[in-house]
Amino acid sequence: MLQATRVVSSAVPFLPLLLSLSLGCQPAHAAAPPPSSSSASSAQQGSATQSPAPFASPPVLAGAPDVATLVAKVNPSVVNIVAMHDVKTRRSPFPFDFFDPFGGAMPQRGSPGPRGGGGEGVTRQRALGTGFIIDGSGHVATNAHVVEDANRVRVRLADDRELDAKVVGRDTRLDLAVLELQGIKNVNELPVAALGSSEKLRVGEYVVAIGNPFGLGHTVTMGIVSAKGRSIGAGPYDDFIQTDASINPGNSGGPLFDLRGQVIGINTAINPQGRGIGFAIPIDALKEVLPQLLRTGHVARGRLGVGIQSMDPTLAKALGLERPTGALVGDVEPGGPAERAGLRSGDVILEVGKETVDDAHELPRVVARHAPGSKVSLKVLRNKSTQTVDVTLDQLKDEAVATEAAPSSAPSGPGGYGLVLGDSRGGGAQVQRVQPGGAADELLMPGDVIVEVNRQPVGNTTEAIKALQSAPKGTVLLKVRREGATQFVAVERK
Question: Which of 128, 138, 142 is nearest to 83 (CA)?
Fold first, then answer.
């Protein structure tokens, strides 16, 4: 499973550079007579032939991007960010400090504060990041994790001015933050980055990233858009741009430009196991929430109150769809917006308003675009026919994840599926073992609890075995509880 690492780094105080010099030795000879004028002219011609005069300006080959001109235009709008954090640590009783060879006293590891004495102390740590100026009022966009729990934020502009910045808004779900520069005398003179459109961005386009990797400010890298709409397990709103432009710790919050000099993404994550794989938040996501962040400091989103899962070809066939599409409803929150509107477990949500839901990953993003309290129409597939359900959305809040109590019972097993089942404490039949190569192999796993077989509820192991054995050959639709969530599984019984 892909693991994304948020690119935040502590400051690097020193970067050693190794220079190699190669000196050639020339044998000594007796002094030679001065060359004649004709031989000197000939030598000058040869020298001119070997070392032509440089171009007045570097040529740009036809079809090649003029990256140097692009960077010169957009670089002033990029800023370096240093966020200071106070971290509690344990003091060491050791009475001496070690000294940093690059200048200044360096507290012993785990022993900040006064020397000796033990106990707890507080040390100041720094996190590096990048941002870009988004308007003439001095607002800067960056990642939320760059400034999370920061006691102080300092911003360095491209002209080397250093300013304090105040965090005016954060959206942790999208990992976005907006800062406001302090002490700007003439904000109208600030270089502002142009915001483009990530929706119009095409896979294969050239992109340029500018950032502060490892404290090396305003570093430029170039690559292409490798993919769009990537889900990397960062949350329900995953919708990343993948690029092979080099992104390293310190690039977090920095802009990803297209060749028109417009910001089309915000660099946020890397895959530590893979080189040339970086991820950026689409700029359209920032443009959607920016008004709320500037006005209230946070983002209010609508919520539907359902647990969903993605479709596969077998599930689609069992539910009466020609192809896998939509979001399959597993759980319906008691008393939530979906239940109040009559939405049921087993419904497939195909549209929200006028937006099509092609995959379950799209549903949270589509619903979140609607404000709490708004009324939206859902197009759902129920019992192989479509209908419209009107829902009034609640406000999205952090929710606790329910856990399944551990069931226990004597195992028994129906034939044809390769399953060993036992009673579940909360009702249904718990999967105790899955036979390798059986019909349910790689579809069910130990701990799953079967609660329905072909839309018929089963309350215990006996009922589940009876329903499974009497099911016709072909696709059998099972409703199961897995790790506190409800899912549907389609099993092909031969």
Answer: 128
User: What CATH number is given for 302-395 in this structure?
Assistant: 2.30.42.10
User: Which runs of E-coded beta strand occur in 393-473?
Assistant: 394-395, 419-423, 429-434, 449-453, 456-457
Q: Which CATH fold topology does 79-183 show?
A: Thrombin, subunit H (2.40.10)
Q: Which of 254, 281, 295, 277 is nearest to 173 (CA)?
A: 281
- Return d(Cα 485, Cα 413) in angstroms, integer: 24
Would you kindly state where each structural domain of the chain is located, as residue ranges?
A: 79-183, 194-296, 302-395, 419-493
322-358 per-position pLDDT tens digit: 899 999 998 888 889 999 999 999 999 999 998 999 9
Q: Are both 302-395 and 419-493 of the same fold?
A: yes
- Note whether 490 and 444 are within 8 A (CB): no
Q: What is the pLDDT of residues 226-272, one digit of tens each?
A: 999 887 776 677 889 999 998 888 889 999 999 999 999 999 987 76
The residues annotated with a catalytic role in the active site are 145, 175, 252
Asked if CATH classification 1.20.1260.110 holds for the domain at 194-296, the reply, yes or no, is: no
Whether 378 and 343 have beta carbons less than 8 Å apart is answered as yes
Which pTM value belongs to this model?
A: 0.62
| Integer CA distances (angstroms), 145 to 8, 72, 82, 288, 434, in order | 8, 29, 12, 19, 42
Looking at domain 419-493, its CATH superfamily turns out to be PDZ domain (2.30.42.10)
Local structure of 422: helix, strand or coil: strand
User: Phi-psi bin for 251: left (phi > 0), alpha (psi -120 to 50), beta?
Assistant: alpha
DSSP reduced 3-state for 284? helix
Q: How many CB atoms lie within 10 A of CB 268?
A: 30
DSSP 165-231: EEEEEEETTTTEEEEEESS-S-GGGS--PEE--SSS--TT-EEEEEE-GGG--SEEEEEEEEEEEE-
Residues 6+ apart with CB under 8 A from 419: 413, 431, 433, 434, 435, 438, 440, 444, 468
